[in-house]
Design a protein that fits this description.
Layout: H1 4-17, H2 22-28, H3 32-44, H4 47-69, H5 81-164
């Protein structure tokens, strides 16, 4: 997180610590390129997208192989033999380009998780401080109750002694 990215991350944490929901604080501090990376990551980085590409490749290659090799089908190969190999190479290049984009999106999502974790940590620290204050207060009340109990026992003993003494 160098430069402006670090500033955005810090701004997200400050906003969340000020009471803004971490998700909202992150959304407010994303650049348009960050939003694009997350949108692509959310869509391309899914199993559904993988299956679409996988089945499309099987259909593409399967059709062209059958059209080229099985002449009895009377299919026209729109990508004869060397062309579908080129398609596979091009699709691999596209995948190589998408991998860094997916990693960027994952890094942004990781920063989001970090911001939430830091906000959770600050909330936990505040809760711990509040709990410590409450415990101190309870200990003081306990000490006062013990003192009152001791005084009541002394008064009770004095009252019993006074009642047992004969009048006069």
């Amino acid at each position: 997180m160098i430069g402006s990215r670090r500033k955005r991350h810090q701004a997200t944490i400050r906003a969340a610590a000020a009471g803004v929901a971490p998700n909202q604080a992150l959304q407010e501090n994303l650049s348009s390129l960050d939003r694009l990376a997350i949108a692509v990551t959310d869509r391309v980085g899914t199993m559904g997208f993988f299956l679409i590409i996988f089945f499309w490749t099987i259909v593409w290659v399967g059709y062209n192989v059958l059209a080229s090799k099985v002449h009895a089908l009377h299919w026209h190969a729109f990508d004869p033999f060397p062309a579908f190999v080129a398609y596979l190479l091009i699709s691999n290049v596209i995948q190589i380009w998408l991998m860094p984009l997916l990693m960027i999106g994952q890094n942004l999502q990781g920063r989001h998780s970090e911001a939430r974790a830091e906000v959770d940590f600050s909330v936990n620290q505040k809760s711990f401080a509040d709990t410590e204050t409450i415990l101190k207060h309870l200990e003081e009340q306990h000490d006062q109750i013990l003192k009152l109990e001791t005084k009541l026992e002394e008064l009770g003993k004095q009252l019993l002694a006074a009642l047992e003494r004969p009048p006069g």
